[in-house]
């Protein structure tokens, strides 16, 4: 039996609704005085973009963090991603929220177009699209803007993959999408696209043609993004991600018990609400809460997914994505965990991120389910869903009828499992979660009963769309956290520290362990804002760089292996690290300042922040000479000697691939420090001297004495140095990213290939249109 088609929407209705959904999710950040601020937004993305525009031009080196880091190679900075130019036009909070809204809207639009071209009507396609855009996982990505930017292009890749483009044109467009993902700031989105595209190719006809297009587009996309990819590969080789160990893969795996959250909204409590989250035993990562603040798919979405599953290719594609996403998200607990230890998976942290594949798969199923709901759902499946709803009702009655003794026993068991917090009303919270899911399930089943009586009803289609949106937004509102835009103002401490740093500037060393005791609690949103205000006032993480202050310690998404090793062996001797890096200003607590050694003096205190600033009385310079060098065979030997505490780094330098020598007195003057250069006049006595450059060692740094290039040696495990002959000499060090020129050549070659593809494709299109029609 054929059912009447749904009346088409106004041509602007669907895009308008999707834009409203994006604004409903992230638009709060565009309101005056409001801003996203949690996780990497305040501490990483803001400093990164502020540093980029402060350095000007094409920034190769970042002198503000960790004693110096490659900047161009930091793929998360998105230097070559055109939309990021908005950070140079608007204030950071406004640009960040604007990019979130625009990318989220474009990503939704891509999935909508894909579903429409798969033959789904507008309302079912919209329902499936909102099942992707408003899910709990996507709401949590408001704290990771580049991840939204990268994911945006994955649905469009599906659109192009299934299009009727000429083969060469399809290859060209696919390569542009892949290149956009690689430079977006989230290269892992390229891996998502590869997994999604491979799954699509496996399920649909035309495998050979599409596989060739994907392979060619992948190669061309890498070429086009070469100016970003080549420097990043150099950085990976020098970072902790390029070593033999992949220990960070143990962080933020999806705990199996947490899969209840796929169906029920916050069944274990809210992270910033009441009842408080209690299941801390499931969280293992660098933060106290999971990477994915919510993995709620929406019970209405899952009901539609059950109704929409069929024996067809689209269902097989969607279910395969769900299975693949869950297997990867489980991480260490997964039967395919060995894959995560292999390239390219090993380059990316936190397996929980692969939940995004589950979200996409369920969204496609929900679209099919919305169509099935309108045309007349399966009675057998409705009965199965009714049974599931009945089980929810039984569970709800059980939690409501549990005796006080049972509640206390349950709470004791949970408390024994928890190591970070005491449980607060776990049964009551479970009842609330199950009750919410039961309500939305009952409403969706009521729509299904109505659809059985009135097949093809537009009201049913609109009702399903509204229920999915309401279900998901109900949870998303607890996941999108906004704070005051005043968090992005300069704290009073910054101006005072710039005065104390002097010229040439000395670096800061923030003693996190000492300051942590002064941090305020953050068990609700107000407390979290207060904590961030304290962190901003004490310049936590990378915030010093925003205000032009250089720092020895800070957070980076990609840490250099040498810097990490040095910090590890000297973790209990922060003053030694500060001395090595010329970090003479120490940010610590007043209590720690009172116990300072004879070589430090207190410059200022801020009792309201629990902060004191001390200074090393004998502050080493960024460019300084030593009286002797000791040859070491490797990084490991250098770190072992430094860890022993028997090396006086003011007088001695441990030099890899160098020689052991002694030197007479020398002078360093006329020091000039640039963002990626250093100059000084060095005057050495007979026998010359050895000059130490207190900046983190990295390939690409070159040195010249009176214009003649000399070798740069690795010093003290993580720094650099060079020999200077006797007499007075002009010494200059400069940096150019070692992968930049080869990457630029690759990009230019990719552009040339792309132009040729477009020209050949256009000629083929013209030839096709000029062919005479058959008689």
TrEMBL record:
It holds the Pfam family YfhO. Keywords: Membrane, Transmembrane, Transmembrane helix. The keyword Transcription regulation does not apply. InterPro entries: Uncharacterised_YfhO. The chain crosses the membrane at residues 12-31, 95-115, 127-151, 211-230, 288-307, 314-331, 354-374, 381-402, 430-452, 740-760. This is Membrane protein YfhO. It comes from Archangium gephyra.
């Amino acid at each position: 039996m054929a059912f009447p088609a749904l009346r088409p929407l106004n041509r602007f209705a669907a895009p308008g609704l999707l834009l409203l959904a994006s604004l409903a999710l992230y638009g709060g950040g565009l309101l005056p005085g409001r801003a996203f601020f949690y996780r990497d937004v305040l501490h990483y993305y803001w400093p990164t973009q502020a540093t980029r525009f402060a350095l000007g031009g094409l920034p190769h080196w970042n002198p503000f963090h960790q004693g110096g880091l490659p900047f161009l190679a930091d793929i998360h900075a998105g230097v070559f991603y055109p939309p990021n130019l908005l950070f140079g036009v608007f204030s950071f909070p406004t640009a960040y929220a604007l990019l979130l809204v625009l990318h989220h809207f474009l990503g939704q639009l891509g999935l909508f177009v894909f579903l429409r071209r798969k033959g789904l009507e507008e309302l079912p396609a919209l329902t499936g699209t909102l099942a992707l855009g408003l899910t709990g996982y996507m709401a949590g990505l408001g704290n990771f803007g580049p991840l939204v930017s990268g994911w945006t292009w994955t649905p469009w890749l599906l659109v192009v993959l299934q299009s009727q483009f000429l083969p060469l044109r399809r290859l060209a467009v696919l390569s542009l999408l892949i290149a956009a993902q690689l430079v977006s700031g989230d290269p892992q989105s390229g891996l998502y696209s590869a997994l999604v595209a491979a799954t699509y190719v496996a399920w649909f006809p035309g495998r050979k043609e599409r596989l060739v297009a994907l392979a060619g587009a992948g190669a061309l996309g890498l070429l086009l993004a070469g100016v970003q990819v080549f420097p990043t590969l150099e950085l990976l080789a020098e970072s902790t991600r390029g070593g033999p160990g992949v220990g960070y893969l143990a962080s933020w795996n999806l705990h199996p018990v947490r899969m209840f959250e796929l169906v029920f909204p916050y069944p274990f409590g809210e992270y910033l609400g009441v009842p408080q989250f209690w299941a801390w035993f499931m969280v293992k990562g660098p933060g106290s809460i999971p990477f994915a603040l919510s993995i709620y798919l929406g019970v209405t979405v899952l009901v539609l997914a059950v109704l929409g599953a069929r024996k067809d290719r689209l269902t097989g594609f969607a279910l395969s994505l769900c299975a693949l996403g869950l297997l990867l998200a489980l991480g260490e607990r997964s039967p395919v965990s060995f894959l995560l230890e292999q390239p390219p998976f090993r380059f990316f942290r936190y397996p929980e991120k692969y939940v995004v594949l589950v979200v996409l798969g369920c969204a496609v199923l929900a679209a099919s389910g919305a169509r099935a709901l309108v045309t007349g759902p399966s009675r057998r499946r409705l009965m199965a869903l009714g049974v599931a709803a009945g089980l929810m009702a039984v569970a709800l009655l059980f939690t409501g009828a549990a005796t006080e003794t049972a509640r206390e026993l349950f709470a004791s068991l949970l408390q024994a499992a928890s190591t970070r917090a005491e449980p607060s009303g776990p049964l009551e919270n479970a009842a609330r979660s199950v009750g919410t899911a039961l309500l939305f399930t009952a409403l969706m089943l009521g729509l299904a009963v109505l659809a059985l009586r009135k097949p093809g009803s537009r009201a049913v289609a609109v009702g399903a769309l509204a229920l999915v949106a309401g279900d998901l937004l109900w949870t998303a509102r607890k996941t999108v956290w906004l704070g005051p835009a005043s968090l992005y103002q300069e704290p009073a401490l910054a101006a005072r520290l710039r005065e104390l740093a002097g010229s040439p500037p000395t670096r800061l060393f923030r003693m996190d362990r000492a300051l942590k005791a002064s941090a305020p609690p953050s068990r609700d949103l107000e407390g979290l804002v207060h904590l961030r205000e304290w962190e901003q006032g004490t310049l936590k993480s990378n915030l010093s760089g925003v205000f032009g202050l250089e720092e020895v310690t800070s957070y980076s998404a990609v840490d250099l292996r040498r810097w990490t090793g040095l910090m590890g062996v000297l973790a209990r001797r922060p003053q030694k690290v500060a001395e090595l890096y010329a970090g003479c200003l120490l940010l610590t607590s007043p209590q720690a300042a009172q116990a300072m050694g004879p070589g430090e003096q207190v410059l200022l205190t801020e009792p309201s922040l629990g902060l004191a600033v001390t200074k090393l009385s004998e502050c080493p310079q960024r460019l300084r000479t030593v009286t002797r060098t000791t040859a070491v065979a490797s990084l490991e030997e250098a770190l072992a000697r430094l860890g022993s505490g028997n090396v006086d780094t003011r007088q001695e330098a441990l030099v890899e691939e160098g020689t052991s020598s002694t030197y007479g007195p020398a002078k360093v003057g006329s020091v000039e420090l640039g963002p990626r250069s250093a100059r000084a006049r060095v005057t050495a006595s007979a026998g010359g001297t050895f000059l130490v450059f207190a900046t983190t060692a990295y390939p690409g740094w070159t040195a010249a004495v009176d214009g003649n290039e000399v070798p740069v040696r690795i010093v003290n495990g993580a720094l650099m140095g060079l020999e200077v002959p006797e007499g007075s000499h002009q010494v200059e060090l400069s940096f150019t990213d070692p992968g930049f020129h080869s990457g630029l050549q690759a990009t230019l070659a990719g552009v040339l290939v792309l132009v040729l593809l477009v020209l050949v494709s256009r000629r083929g299109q013209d030839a096709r249109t000029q062919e005479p029609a058959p008689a």
